[in-house]
């Protein structure tokens, strides 16, 4: 009885060590499923404020600026005019801006967008599937995606006009 008990204890200890090592390695290496620069941008299928369902495939071949935001997020609200200014500047140069709202109801988002004067496509991520797929935390987070669908830059936090312009200029230069 003592020998079998000791064997069970050793097996349990080894199992704990293996699982602990895996957890630590995964945490340190960042392989938790979050997309990184150089990865293909996750696809999405979301309801737009226009009432239509939009997919990432609609924008294939275009560089994209995908901004995750919420009306309750003060930095998100503050950066929205800069995003709109850049959307206006780059719209004829193959750069598509997309705003993905984090789970708010359509009326709240629609009222905010009208009040601020945003006219680039706004998508509603009601069940936060895209938030999970893109690994968003905190907000705002903006993904700069090349025309080949690869993530060139991920910016966490509020963007100002100059930083946004510099990022898009880099994005537009990519083949």
Describe the structure.
Keywords: Cytochrome c-type biogenesis, Disulfide bond, Redox-active center, Signal-anchor, Transmembrane. This is Redoxin domain-containing protein. Its main location: other. It is found in: Cell envelope. With 175 residues, the protein is α/β, with parallel strands linked by helices. Helix content is 43%, strand content 20%. It has helices at residues 2-29, 74-90, 106-116, 129-134, 161-173; strands at residues 45-48, 53-55, 63-69, 95-101, 122-124, 141-145, 151-156. The chain has a seven-stranded mixed beta sheet with strand order 2-1-5-4-3-6-7, covered by helices on one side. Helix 2 (74-90) links the parallel strand 3 (63-69) and strand 4 (95-101). Helix 2 (74-90) packs across helix 5 (161-173). The longest helix has 28 residues, at 2-29.
Could you give a short description of this structure?
With 175 residues, the protein is α/β, with parallel strands linked by helices. The chain is built from 5 helices and 7 strands; from the N terminus they run H-E-E-E-H-E-H-E-H-E-E-H.
Give the SSE layout.
Elements: H1 2-29, E1 45-48, E2 53-55, E3 63-69, H2 74-90, E4 95-101, H3 106-116, E5 122-124, H4 129-134, E6 141-145, E7 151-156, H5 161-173
Span from first to last CA? Answer: 69 Å
The structural class is alpha/beta
Portion of residues within helices: 40-55%
Main sheet specs: 7 strands, mixed
Number of DSSP strand runs? 7
Low-pLDDT regions = 26-31
Chain-averaged pLDDT: 87
- Our Rg estimate from Cα atoms comes to 21 Å
Strand content: 15-25%
Oligomer: single chain
Subcellular location: Cell envelope
InterPro entries: AhpC/TSA, Thioredoxin-like_sf, Thioredoxin_CS, Thioredoxin_domain, Thioredoxin_ResA/DsbE_sf
Pfam family, one: AhpC-TSA
Protein name: Redoxin domain-containing protein
């Amino acid at each position: 009885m003592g020998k079998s008990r000791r064997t069970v204890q050793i097996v349990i200890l080894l199992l704990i060590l293996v699982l602990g090592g895996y957890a630590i390695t995964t945490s340190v290496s960042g392989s938790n499923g979050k997309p990184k620069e150089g990865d293909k941008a996750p696809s999405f299928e979301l309801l737009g404020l226009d009432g239509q369902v939009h997919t990432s495939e609609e924008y294939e071949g275009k560089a994209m600026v995908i901004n995750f935001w919420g009306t309750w997020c003060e930095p998100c609200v503050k950066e929205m005019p800069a995003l709109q200014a850049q959307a206006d500047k780059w719209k004829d140069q193959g750069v598509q801006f997309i705003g993905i709202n984090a789970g708010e109801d359509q009326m709240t988002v629609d009222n905010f967008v009208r009040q601020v004067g945003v006219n680039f496509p706004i998508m509603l991520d009601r069940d936060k599937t895209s938030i999970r797929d893109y690994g968003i935390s905190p907000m705002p987070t903006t993904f700069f995606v090349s025309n080949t669908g690869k993530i060139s830059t991920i910016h966490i936090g509020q963007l100002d006009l100059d930083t946004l312009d510099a990022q898009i200029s880099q994005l537009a230069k990519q083949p």
